[in-house]
């Protein structure tokens, strides 16, 4: 059996948006977590695709996973050990593992984003906790009127407001 061919897509770098313009200075590119403000939890982004369509979303920069503890009793590297009651008189050990997410290669969660080629990836706003991240996403989605504007791929806001409810 021959090896599977994969097509390598070159993604544009994340840049910081200023107003409606993207300043294309090298210094404003975001290539690592160190380029973000200290304590950043995630960011609000806008991706503009080659065909002119746009998408606004949010992205966590860290992924937190709970994994069952190793049988040898060792704590995974960079993990924190917690214990939970099983309800049967036993406590089970878990490791909380925090790792960098796939934000560098991220192109949106909507199915349409996966088939389009990104032209510009902009960071609109940084958030410093989960609640702020969700609030800012909703704020930008409403402010940009993504449900009424046909140039946006977004088809719902917070799973409560749908494009089909507003447009015929």
Can you describe this structure in just a few lines?
This protein has 168 residues and is mostly beta strands. The protein has two helices and eleven strands. The protein folds into two domains: 112 residues, no CATH class; 39 residues, no CATH class.
Walk me through this protein's architecture.
The structure is a single chain. This protein has 168 residues and is mostly beta strands. The chain folds into 2 domains: 112 residues, no CATH class; 39 residues, no CATH class. The strands form 3 sheets. Strands 1, 2, 3, 4, 5 and 9 form a 6-stranded mixed sheet that branches. A 3-stranded antiparallel sheet has the order 6-8-7, with no helix packed on it. A two-stranded antiparallel ribbon has the order 10-11. A hairpin with a 3-residue loop joins strand 10 and strand 11. The longest helix has 14 residues. It starts with 13 loop residues before the first strand and ends with a helix. About 3% of the residues have low confidence.
């Amino acid at each position: 059996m021959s090896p599977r061919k994969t097509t390598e897509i070159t993604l544009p770098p994340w840049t910081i948006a200023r107003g409606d313009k993207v300043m294309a200075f090298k210094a404003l590119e975001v290539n690592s977590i160190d380029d973000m403000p200290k304590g950043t939890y995630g960011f609000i982004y806008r991706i503009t695709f080659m065909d002119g369509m746009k998408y606004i979303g949010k992205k966590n920069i860290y992924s937190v996973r709970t994994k069952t503890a190793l049988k040898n009793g060792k704590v995974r590297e960079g993990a924190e050990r917690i214990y939970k009651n099983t309800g049967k008189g036993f406590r089970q050990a878990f490791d909380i593992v925090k790792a960098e997410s796939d934000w560098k290669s991220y192109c949106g969660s909507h199915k349409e984003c996966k088939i389009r080629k990104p032209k510009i990836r902009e960071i609109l706003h940084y958030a410093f906790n989960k609640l702020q991240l969700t609030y800012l996403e909703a704020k930008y989605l409403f402010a940009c009127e993504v449900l009424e504007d046909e140039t946006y791929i977004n088809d719902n806001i917070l799973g409560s407001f749908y494009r089909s409810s507003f447009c015929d």
